[in-house]
Request: fold
Amino acid sequence: MNYAINGIILGIVQGISEWLPVSSKTQIMITSIYALHLSFNQAYALGLFLEAGTVLAALIYFRRDVWGILKSLVLRGSRYDYMMLKYVVVITILTGLIGVPLYLTIADSIKGIGIGLPMIALGLILIADSILITFSRLRYMPRKSLSDLRMWEVAVIGVVQGIAALPGVSRSGVTVSAMLLLGLNPEDSFKLSFISMIPAAIGASIVPVLFTKHLFNTLIADINTYTIITAIVIAALISIALIDALIKFARSRHIAALTALLGALAVLSGVLSIITGFG
Reply:
């Protein structure tokens, strides 16, 4: 029974934190260290396992877009499909070029207050942007669609997503925020961010596995497999519901409230990372 309860708790935490501007790594580490009594490194490895649930949810929710991108690979996609393929490829390549070196050379050296500062800075920028939108009577409301994005803007999104390899930085938080600040409308910002997450999350799991295989061996030995499977399933179910809710909220006209909420969550995430020291 405890295995199932632990799996449900971990799945809920992963399913919620992955899609909001809070570091899912931080939340999973806190939960697994205190609930399962794991070591710091084991908690990090568990977070990578649970990425499978959120990737599965994104594949299911955006199955039509993903299928269109796959068709484009064999020259059978629509114009929209080719556009999305181009965006995802550019974003993924730049994410890898930025994220992998950061993970291998810099991430471990960032400690203490440095862990949470990027998210706090991002949150304050978003809150300031929400105030600007409010007092300008929506003059600066993001209105671009995906087809309006220029390649340098797509490149910026890829670079920003790569920076999310740093401890305490939320991948969805920084990518959605970057797109909003570039003028992309909220619905398309969430959509492109979540679709781009799929290859990024897969890559983010593969790189640490290649370099820290022993962590996964000890994790499997210390945690019941049913706990991990339950957590992945729950994370997928929660993720699908939350993605749908965020997309619907993004379609509303409450852009100032949405931006302010994302900013507040980002600040909270940064403060939590500083307090706990977890990234």
Q: What stands out?
A: The chain has a mean pLDDT of 81.
